[in-house]
Records
---
Amino acid sequence: MAFTLYSLIQAAILCVNAVAVLHEERFLSKIGWGVDQSVGGFGDEPGVKVQLMNLVRSVRTVMRVPLIAVNSVCIVLLLLFG
Amino acid sequence: MDYNATQSGFRQRKLQPNMRQRNSSMEGPDGSQLFEDTSGAGPRTQSGYRNQQTEPQQAGFAGQSLLSDPMSNLAMAYGSSLASQGKEMVDKNLDRFIPISKLKYYFAVDTVYVGKKLGLLVFPYMHNNWEVSYQQDTPVAPRFDVNAPDLYIPAMSFITYVLVAGVALGTQNRFSPELLGVQASSALVWLIMEVLAVLLSLYLVTVNTDLTTIDLLAFSGYKYVGMIVGLVAGLLFGRPAYYLSLLWCCAAIFVFTIRTLRLKLLSEAAAEGKLVRGTRNQLRMYLTMSIAAAQPIFMYWLTYHLIR
């Protein structure tokens, strides 16, 4: 119960790392979550699965480089302060 | 005492040594009287008065000698312009991250609104019209519409919750000042996680709504009122009173949240109570119900460890 803001930040970093390591060809296409399978109908009904796939793809595209920096900072902080 | 205190206080300022040097060179015997400690009460109070009277004059003297120097004049003008530029930049950047002008809307409340809203949070069953009234496409300020969300009540009730939690811990001899910070940050973390979860689910279900993040923050913050009521009842009257009042407040927040969010999230027809088929409306209904059901869970989770 004793949450601090730093533990929230750590949890967020872990979750974003988990999304970032999902490989496009080797994993997502195999389970039907690849980018080529998301072009569904053009109506206004994207559906939950298509939204989720779009979210995964955009997180991976956007957060790859910042995650390097953020992870390095987190590692240094953990080494210094435990 | 007063004289000594002001003297040591003045010594710590940067300009004062320069002023002292110049003034002691200008006023010989008077300057020495200002600097040495006097033991008698009479001379001390007199020199104390003189200190306070002549200090402005010394400041005037030193200020004149500073300002008459053109280089320092230029430096002061440059410094002040730099400070105002820095302030402008900070304001502009801060406005980019935290929309200050939008925040002002949420704090435009008055006592009548707060009273009505608190009553609505505890007893929402008699209220009939839950729609937010608009005025030329912008929502009316909370002062004029009791259904509009505001941030005053959530902010105040959050702080009150932390204080009441401190009181509750104190009655059980478990209190220490760090625990206040722990309670505050825990509640804040849960609030942030709840808002993020609601935002994520709103994105996934592709609801076209005009709910902003701050609106969600306001709606999630309304449950602190019920938590405070439960905690105070538990502190005053014991555990059964805590459970009863928490049950009442949970039901009230559940109904309040459903009735408020129904108009914002569901489509027009479904919001009026007609049964509309279709997976999207069903999803939206489930979303509204789960957001409303999460409120009592959080209310219990954040308060049960405070009542023993």
---
Amino acid sequence: MIVLRVSRGTVLLAAGLLMTAQLLAATAALGETLDYEPGRGLRLADGALTVGGYLSVAAEALDESRNHLAVEDVSILVTYQTSEHLSFFGEFELEDSIEVDSGGFGTGDDVFELERLYAEYESSPRLRLRAGQMLTTFGIWNLIHAEPLVWTTSRPIATERFFDTATTGIQIDSPFDLGGFDLTATAYLQPGDQFDNPQGAQQAHTAAGGRLRLGNGDRWHLGTSAVRFHDEVDKRWENTAGIDFAHRTRRWEFAAEAAANNGGSAPTTWGAYFQAVYHTDAEIHPVVRIEHVELDGTRGTPLIVGVAYKPASNIVFKLEGVIGTRGLGVGGNGPLASVNVLF
Amino acid sequence: MVGGALLIVPSPATGDAAADPRAFVVIVHPSNPTAAITRTELERIFRRSRRFWQHGGKIVPLNLPFGLPARIGFSRTVLRSTDAELVTFWNRQYFQGVLPPAVLHSVEAVLEFVAGTPTAIAYVPAGRENRGVRTVRVESDE
């Protein structure tokens, strides 16, 4: 039986989008110029306020889970620059809002999450201070995990199993020039619970961590990250450390990350991936990724082979095949596809 | 004041640099004390990783429209990137709440904005600078 699930959040969101469309139409009718660029959002208040977001629709036919077609993410991104030094950023996300699958009847998940909400104070070229809920500054993928920004629908296991992907607290970033290269030192502290904690593999109650990143523009970088946190799921203190690397040329883009987690007397778990993407002038981007993970006595070496197509700068279609994931809790082997729009 | 500018061309010059439509000069407001800047610092400013002047004030970088030869030259020599690479870069920055430099619709609009904004920095085709702005020498990284 095919089931269509529509959550209350979807109805609210649809109503909001309709109202926004009416507002924009009314503005256009008055002859006002809208400062909107696809993939860069709508700029209001002389550019101080930007409202944008992204949408992701994904389909999967994996052998350890039900066939599935869903609006995986609808995210709204809001940036507000209140003064020269102070800005606010928020991301509000509706997950799995519309879902079609081959299982029994159920209600929509109706998960409307506060993904990020923080204030950023930039006092000088050498110091940025953030306070609020933010993505945990660990590795590469966690900071750019939105579907329109990555080349595969699936996410490397090593980028989300060994640390809480969100942090609520304060963070200091300090960029330096190191012989012409960019060195950024980051330190963060989470003194308590999250504002709004998604049900991830790890849920940190208290955390402290940091990251060092050395690079040259976006051409290459080397990074190392570490975090110590009290995991609310396993009720113990855990330590996770990782290294990452990225390099791009005109045609190739390489990325690799490795992370290891040790929780008290529990055995160390770890994972890593290496991904290569080839860029063609036709905006067709073949991608291959190999991973290896060792999780609580289970190990696997997933291989992902796929292709991404970008018909416009803010739209990407992806198709990939996944093997080697059985028993790793990610749905199994099979094809995945998605269409992603940054707006 | 106009003068002292380093004409930048994206490939080895084979004749008059100013005749290359991709050649550009970097301009700031006349009150800006910056006389010279390295390519690396200029890249940091236009990638928005450096956001404040040493002498104070938030930097306002400006871009020319897509497709103009001077913009292509600037992207290749200063940012060392193609338009496609920059799209990927800015998509990821947008997700962090960082927006690319504003794009003004013409060289005249850029000159007028910089002439009226003490913290602005931009580039225009070589030879198009005027008395309302001041040129900045761009030094190589070596």
---
Amino acid sequence: MNSVKEACSQLKQNYDACFNTWFTEKFLRGDHSTDSCGPFFKVYRECVRKAIQEQNIDLKEIEKEIMGTEEELKPPGSK
Amino acid sequence: MGISKMLFLFPSTEIPLAQQSVRVKRSAKDQYYLRGWIRHSSREFGKVKYPDNFVDIYTNFDLKMKIWTSEHIFCHPWETVAQASWRKYPNPMNPNVVAIDVLERDVKNGILHSRRLLSSKWVFPGWARKILGSERICYAKENSTVDPTNRIMTLFTQNLTFCHLMSIDERLSYTAHPEDPSKTLLTQEAVVTVRGVPLSSYLEGFLTNTISLNANKGRQAMEWVIGKLNAEVHDLTTTAAKNLHVLTSPPTVQASSLPEC
């Protein structure tokens, strides 16, 4: 699976491989300690954030919670 | 009929999902309360069974919502389905999804919270192109939680107003089946809102069919991924079996048909 920017795809695959292993072998078996994928995630996430800025995807829109809050009652796209 | 009357008609634990259209004249404020209310009611989802059905809600503005709900059983344990969900893309059934990125992720109180950005390519049929263009990449944000203690995984996807003509909100919930812990129950709800576009019945039909088709493809995609996961396990097990003289044969799942169980 690709990333939003081609340049981040390899970083994404590295992170995904780490996460999938942790999810299956630790998290689902009751080990809730933080995954050791931190370093992979950090560098991958930085790449994605830059790509989002470059492509003008509205990050605030992504981070805003709508359902279950007051925002749910406003039409989409209104201020 | 105002919103308060509608609430009396629909008790909070069930929504009558029949094929009739419900014509409601309401103010701009009411229609968003309606959307919020239906969201709220759907939290009772796991306790009531709903057949595949549509509810059309017309308003006196150029805003049309279509609400679609569905339920499905996977003949696989919840843990398998949860793993498959993270590995769902790419798959041959959903070629439109071109990228997925994790933006945030952490574990709080034993529950995994993730936030992802989905990029998908929408291609519009001939008659819709004049209004919407031939194709565009649309982005959606997905919030998810995984609770391994209670065996519940929820995913909530909203498309961003980058593609502002249309809003599609989807909620999925994978839970261990209450009657058979070796199976997984999937409940889905999608709300499509189209704004400012004079909806012809063709475009409406296209959206309806696409969502229904995609939901079916989504389920087939999950079966396909689970098949791959099981094959991986089988390969590992076969290797181990050669040394341990223990034979196991997990079921193989055909992607083209859903299992009856």
---
Amino acid sequence: MTDQDANPEDEEIILAELDDGELVEQMHEDLYDGLKEEIVEGTSILLARKWSADKVLNEALVEGMRIVGIDFRDGILFVPEVLLAANAMKGGMELLRPLLSETGVKPIGKMVIGTVKGDIHDIGKNLVGMMLEGAGFEVFDIGINNSVEDYFEAMEKHQPDILGMSALLTTTMPYMKVVIDEMVKQGIRQDYIVLVGGAPLNEEFGRAVGADAYCRDAAQAADVAPAMVRARQAGG
Amino acid sequence: MSISPQNRSDPGRGNRGEAPARRGRRRGAARRGAARQRLTGARESAAWIERGIPHFDLLNAEALELIEHNAETVLEEIGVEFREFPRALTLWKEAGAGVDGERVRFPRGLCRSLVQATAPKEFRQHARNPGRGTIIGGDRTVLVPAYGPPFVHDLDKGRRYATLEDFRNFVKLACMSPGLHHSGGTVCEPVDVPVNKRHFDMIYSHVKYSDKPFMGSVTHPERAGDSVAMAKILFGDDFVANNTVLINLINVNSPLTFDATMLGAATVYAENHQATIISPFLLAGAMSPVTIAGTLTQILAEALAGMAYVQLVRPGAPVVFGSFAAAVSMQSGAPTFGTPEPSLILYGAAQLARRLGVPFRSGGGLCAAKIPDAQAAYEAANTLQTSALAGVNFMLHTAGWLEGGLAMGYEKFVMDADQANMLAGLLGGVDLSENAQALDALREVGPGAHFLGAAHTLANFESAFCRSGVADNNSYEQWRQDGSLDAARRANVIWKQMLRDYEAPPLDPAIDEALLEFMQRRKSEFEDRDY
Ligand code: B1M
């Protein structure tokens, strides 16, 4: 062992000098540390080495965020750190997204998310959006106080896989049913996965309004969402 | 823990009444009845607690001035948004503030001077039972049940969505709890009634099942209007025009934002001379900076902007400086309670409100626990003590709060209401009357004997110590024999007994009918809607 090896923290790492295996491992570390520039750089290096976009996505980014997700769930990583990690992931995704669609690879998923009409609670919704971005989703956050029309407009415009609705008030959560009923009425309910969440909801309420799933927290949403999109893609 | 609701109190009668003079022998049954009542802890409800101890002043003048200065900087430089409510923007323009879109920026000192010019230092909130009308502000503390929970919890049935029946139950329990001075507002959300009509049933339940003061609806300006209309039926138009009979919770959509719902409700109440509690509601870390000084700055800026707005709508309308501050778990974003930082914030905010010269709302039996367990008890006790020492005037969420406000607990309510009695004892302070000096007792007993049989003890023992109706202080064996119940199980027995013992305070049948008629008419004017 050289002195340098004993003190790896002090060492300036040149990403381009790492071999593929080392670079991917380093990217996992960099995601964990929320280093956006490094992730963007690592992503372009791998692409320049003729890695396919979906290989970069899955082996470098998604795998890295999987580790972040585990440590968030276990209370080891804190929200601001996950926010940074998700942001770093987003940086990589921006490079990959056009390539993925060119090669016809199914993206991990798109989600429109917003808080329902009459409700301005958004801390939980923001966390969910962040976690899903971290999971590689393209997230369109349409903010608070959304009417049926707002949701429909956003679905029309972004063509998401998932519609996510958040509500924190018992006076506003029934509005989720208003949105879902309108989707049924217009014959588009089957085109989307509908996920709902918010502290005053529960499993039973999620079923009662006709959602596909209720998510108790952001970490769970980040598990459920990709799984449901995958299942749907597999099912055709 | 039960009290017959007919027992009325003199306003302001604290819990440390004069020691009853002993009047020779009482007749057997009467004596026995009185003693038994004592056993159940029955006491008259006071209308508030009169403070007999100093405030715990955490920050020195220099620190407070720094925060006041910084708050003015926030108001001047960053400003506050008044969203989707053009009337507020017009009023602010006229008052000399800078309006840029929905962002309002305030010349230094403007908000403070508006508040100080016309907002009352304290005000009376009337109740239908005049003896239970209360005063909010000054050296008084008014203890109020928890507000807002969509779920209820009890040991028998667990956690479930609240219903109108639960709502009525909590109004009854609050009515019977001597330590609680107020009936509260949304003591739980009656999810079984359509969203756009449940405010009628909530207001009616407060009127019908309690004679303590209560809160109005804020979830829509129209619902605020209905609350005022129902108050007019109860108190008369003229009375309501000139007196405060409703107090209403207006949360700031922090950071630095007021939304149209809250502004609409605040405006309706201000116009009608009813009280609003302008409450910056901060989960530090998410809705305010992670530091105590930063959060205090934001609280002051937001409260000033909101209270000043109310004064623009109607100069002299009663306002309360509110503060609900918790920290978020940095691991999940979930609110946490009973930790030191929110206590420090609470102490500081109370000082800022006192310097401003308006009543202060904060605190309560806050906790994140799901059930009435040890976490529930110690987190709540931390906040209750802090609120009492800080000098909270209107202590919303005193009883029942579980799960960060998501659930109203039956057992937790009883445990907290029991603590509310204790707070009255603590805040009452130290009696220094001749009787309390007890030199007679010391002379009588002298060295080496005991005080249990002393004349002074006999004359004073009944009211000398706050007695818990929930705690068990018996021997281990006795406790075993009584069923080995923990505090929550004992509380479970108590609330059921209270509901069995409940008697509705009499309500003028003509008023009752008029209220029912009003509700029926209004409810038939529009379709049920669930949002
Ligand atoms: C795929 O889609 C998904 C998937 C998962 C999803 C999802 C969507 N959305 C959420 N999830 C899930 O994942 C998230 C992350 O893990 C989680 O999100 P959460 O949002 O649950 O968790 C967050 C990380 C942290 N939690 C929160 O942010 C909410 C905390 C509590 C304390 C709360 C807050 C902070 C606020 N409030 Co409000 N508030 C309360 C809340 C009580 C509570 N303990 O929940 C509650 C919900 N509020 C209530 C009330 C009454 C109100 N609030 C109001 C206002 C506010 C503030 C503005 C002050 C503030 C919100 C600020 C903001 N920017 O969001 C008012 C209404 C305003 C309006 N028009 O909406 C007002 C009416 C109060 C008033 N009188 O002014 C109560 C509900 C009453 C009811 N019966 O329904 C309440 C339970 C507190 C109480 N006891 O009063 C999961 O639920």
